[in-house]
Amino acid sequence: MSKLKKTMIAVLSAVLVALGGYGAGQNLGATDFNVISNFTESEITTATTSAQLLLDNNSGRSYAAISNSSDTGVYLTFDATSTTPGGYWLASGENFEIDDRNMFFGKVYVSTTTAGKTITAVDSY
Asked: Which neighbouring-strand residues pair with 122?
């Protein structure tokens, strides 16, 4: 497991602890919407400036975290691909969370103006 993957898992664990020390499969709130029982992780290195799929559709998504460990910013787009980079700007070294404040169940794509950028995501369901 890469250092970046271990970091993403640690971030997700820290979020769980911050929410009350809950573990996998435990209810984090008043509804089943906040139950995290499983998660998958993905890591891509951008090959071109066209959008690449980072997170697939997930109707059971309860939380997702996206981390930009590259040396430049990248764009996130939601349910839309484009040959021109654009969308939500995620700066170098920054993270983006999908949670109950901005829940999105569709596909998330990443694009950049320079190839070879590494982006990691954790998708909880």
From this structure: 41, 65
Per-residue pLDDT of the chain (125 residues; tens, 9 = 90+): 566 666 666 666 655 555 554 444 444 444 444 455 688 888 888 877 788 899 999 999 999 999 999 999 999 999 876 666 778 999 999 999 999 899 999 999 998 888 899 999 999 88
In this structure, which long-range contacts are made by residues 83-86, counting pairs with CB atoms below 8 Å and at least 24 apart in sequence?
Answer: 83/49, 83/50, 83/51, 84/49, 85/49, 85/51, 85/111, 85/112, 85/113, 86/111
Task: Please state the pTM of the whole predicted model.
Answer: 0.69
Q: What is the DSSP letter of 32?
A: G
